[in-house]
Write a structure and sequence with these properties.
Blueprint (H helix, E strand, L loop, with lengths): L1 H7 L1 H17 L3 H13 L4 H13 L5 H12 L13 E6 L6 H14 L4 E6 L4 H14 L2 E3 L7 H15 L3 E6 L7 H17 L4 E2 L2 E5 L5 H12 L4 E5 L10 H8 L3 E5 L7 E3 L2 H9 L11
Parallel strand pairs: 1-4, 1-5, 1-6, 2-3, 2-4, 6-7, 7-8
Antiparallel strand pairs: 8-9
Bound molecules: guanosine-5'-diphosphate (GDP) and magnesium ion (MG).
Magnesium ion binds next to helix 6.
Length: 300
Amino acid sequence: MLSKLFKALSRSRGGISHALSNLLLKGPSVNELDKLEETLLETDMGYDTVEVITNIVSRYPGKDLKNTIRDQLIEILPFQAELKIDKKPCVIPIVGVNGSGKTTSAAKLAHMYMETGSDVTLVAADTYRAAAVDQLKIWSDRVGCRLICNENSGEPTSVLFDGLESADAHGSDIVLVDTAGRLHTSSNLMSELEKMYRVMDNRFSQFSVNPLIALDACIGQNSLVQAKEFHQQHPLNGAILTKLDGTARGGIVFPLFRELGIPVKFIGVGESLEDLALFDPKAYVDSLLGIENKLSDNER
Ligand SMILES: Nc1nc2c(ncn2[C@@H]2O[C@H](COP(=O)(O)OP(=O)(O)O)[C@@H](O)[C@H]2O)c(=O)[nH]1
Ligand SMILES: [Mg+2]
């Protein structure tokens, strides 16, 4: 997985490494600092974090530069995510806008939890797109986990209710709920989500509720706005940052945590079941900066 993360961040790393090498070579002139700043901003890490780095660079432009930056960046980030969420069984609704990778991430998470011996129930609560249930059926077959769906229902809350009752009766440890994509500006769909949260919180208190937002890393700063609104509606447990393999903009992890207090818990680095990893701040920063000492050639 280190190798996929390393590959996924290659574009960001290329730009940052180039700017840092130039800086070491030519000294921290205003021009080189500007170039570095621009490169860093392009990764979406946000101005505050960029400033942390440019301050280090202008103060200690030495050969230990990368390691100094590394340590500071790791300090900004959330702790390493853990797979086990709670002692109680838990329900993980996966929310976000259309196409952000909710369904795929639900399947990847189901796979990850099954691999560690948990009993997993997937709930197909996207009742808007006819193909959504079929998509999840295919995934659940591949993963080999339970799936609760109702093709005749247009009521996501009702499907969720059935799913949680069934998971409870069966004794599932983890219930992953695939939801319909919605923009935070769509008040109907947002109030429907609120209804779903009410059912989870009030009717199924035997489960801890741990919502995750799926955010497409390619869309950059827009994800901050989305995350903020979803987080205000119901506190999010964290984010799944998807499609890191297709972008040079993985830096959004920083402002998500610094500005909104939302930790990235998982990263998506491809389209298959195995392409999900727990967020590891050290591996992430090392990959971002091109610090390779932790990676053997086999791992890459
Ligand atoms: N490259 C890549 N593609 C992804 C990733 N996660 C999801 N996708 C793709 O993004 C598209 C939308 O994903 P989907 O799960 O259906 O999004 P949803 O609308 O939020 O449920 C699909 O083609 C997925 O294969 C990822 O981490 N990397
Ligand atoms: Mg979907």
